[in-house]
Amino acid sequence: MRRAEKAGRIQRILDDLYPRTPVPLDHRDPFTLLVAVLLSAQTTDKKVNEVTPELFRAAPDPAALAALPEVQIKHLIRQIGLANTKARNLKKLGALLVERHGGQVPETERELEALPGVGHKTASVVRAQAFGHPAFPVDTHIHRLAGRWGLTRSKNVAGTERDLKAIFPRESWNKLHLQIIFFGREHCPALYHDLTECPICRWAATKKRIQEEREANATRRRR
User: Fold this and answer.
1) Nearest-10 Cα torsion for 193, 195, 199, 205
2) Which one is catalytic: 121, 163, 175, 207?
């Protein structure tokens, strides 16, 4: 099956399973989304949603965030992984949003990636979900599924992003990003996954890939 044909079939399955794609991180505006996405690195969305209400009460806007002592920010996000680094970045983020952008979150990729703690994936998520710009944020989970499904041979997320953008319609990128995340959580876990039982892997994955994952799962069980 050609990649374009496979991509079309995958998209139809995802549309049936996830016709609506709510943003999993609780937020009320571009600023709170940016903060939530920054906090979500190496942490679950559930945990981020548990700590952000108190953080956003203390810092509802960039100026308030910049005014908070770093130690207080750290205390508010202490349950989040990498709290020290994230607290430092959040305080700098608030200050730079005020100094450079009048307290507003910029929309361009270049300006977003120039902010502390904001990488390409975070910038893409904010552009897509806060401003509606076509983007296809690829994290390690989407990278893993795209490889399983034979949509990319890239060894890194940048290459996978290029491949996915090339085979899926531009107007579908923002929705597909979330659909693939939801599918991975519910149907396609990283470990101990039987590809032959998965709604997509069972026909999209190659026989070689299925065998490789079986062997990897067997090795994990022996440890």
Assistant:
1) 140
2) 121
Residue in 91, 139, 163, 175 annotated catalytic: 139
Query: The whole model's pTM is what?
Result: 0.91
Query: Is 92 among the catalytic positions?
Result: no
Phi-psi region of 105 (alpha: psi -120 to 50; beta: other; left: phi over 0): beta
Per the annotation, the verdict on 91 as an active-site residue is no
- Please tell me whether residues 123 and 37 are part of one structural domain: yes
Distance CA 174, CA 171 (A): 7
Residue 80's domain comprises 30-131
Q: Which tens digit of pLDDT belongs to each residue from 135-148?
A: 999 998 999 999 99
Predicted confidence (pLDDT) per residue in 37-71, tens digit: 999 998 999 999 999 999 999 999 999 999 999 99
Q: Which residue has the tokens 């952000």?
A: 52
CATH number (domain holding residue 44): 1.10.340.30
Asked if residue 207 and residue 192 are part of one domain, the reply reads yes
210 contact partners, CB below 8 Å, separation of at least 6: 195, 196, 201
User: CA-CA distance, 84 to 89, in Å (whole number)?
Assistant: 9
Give the contacts of 43 (CB within 8 A, at least 6 positions apart).
80, 81, 82
What is each CA distance from 88 to 39, 67, 68, 70, 73, in whole angstroms?
A: 12, 12, 11, 6, 8
Q: What percent of the chain is modeled with pLDDT above 90?
A: 87
